[in-house]
Amino acid sequence: MIPPIANNFVAGETPDSALSHVEGLNDDGVAGILNLLGEHYEDPANATEDTEEYIQLARMIADRDADACVSVKPSQLGIDISGEVFEENLGRIVDAADCRVWVDMEDHTTTDTTLDAYEKYTRQTDGNMGLCVQANLKRTGEDLEQLADLPGKVRLVKGAYDEPAEIAHKDKDTVDAVYKDLLEYAFREFDGGIGVGSHDPEMISYARELHEEYGTPYEVQMLMGVRESAQTELAAEGIPVYQYIPYGSKWFSYFYRRVRERKENLAFAARAVLTG
Prior knowledge:
Layout: H1 4-7, H2 15-27, E1 31-36, H3 44-63, E2 68-72, H4 83-96, E3 101-103, H5 111-124, E4 129-134, H6 140-147, E5 153-157, H7 172-189, E6 194-197, H8 201-214, E7 218-223, H9 228-236, E8 241-247, H10 251-261, H11 264-275
Parallel strand pairs: 1-2, 1-8, 2-3, 3-4, 4-5, 5-6, 6-7, 7-8
């Protein structure tokens, strides 16, 4: 059973509980991005099991006519086992889903394999895919140049993984500046739409300015349990808002990872509970 503090950030342990949460959000004009918790599998059977649940989840989204899509982690689908296992499992989900399939980005060692699989399937689905990219990685500018020629959406986040300094920006002010530069490039060069994956009011305000300048469609994506009042306010203004919604029995690992990657996440989560 999920304790009360975790209930603010995890939508239960079953697909049904997650979709019930989505339906409540939809009433407030907010859509959902559903993520089954699980990662870094070394046993192919675990990756297959989660692949099957994503396939079932996609069918449930369609059956309940929910305004929602799914987001998968490469290590959950077997990228730690092999790139081929990951690509095969991702392909099964993409084939079964009518909704958009987002692919999260994990640590830098998986970036190239993730990009290759995304390119393959976003072309096959005529862009019914989305990919997360991380502003803190020094390579991301070049990656965006490659992605600009592909159909599909990109979610730009600041990045949570503690990457080596030789390949990643470490200073917060630098990451913020790079995030804005990359956001401007994406609004200028992308046609398929931009996912602004940030809780930072400055970045959300800047995205609004870029939309007014370039006309590129965009959406704001925030985590469940973080600045939820801002999510509904933005949706009421007519800005598409998606809440990233984790669910599943592996909720403890989700919190442990977030606190381990960035200790300030713990304080941020506590503030979110207190302030809504």
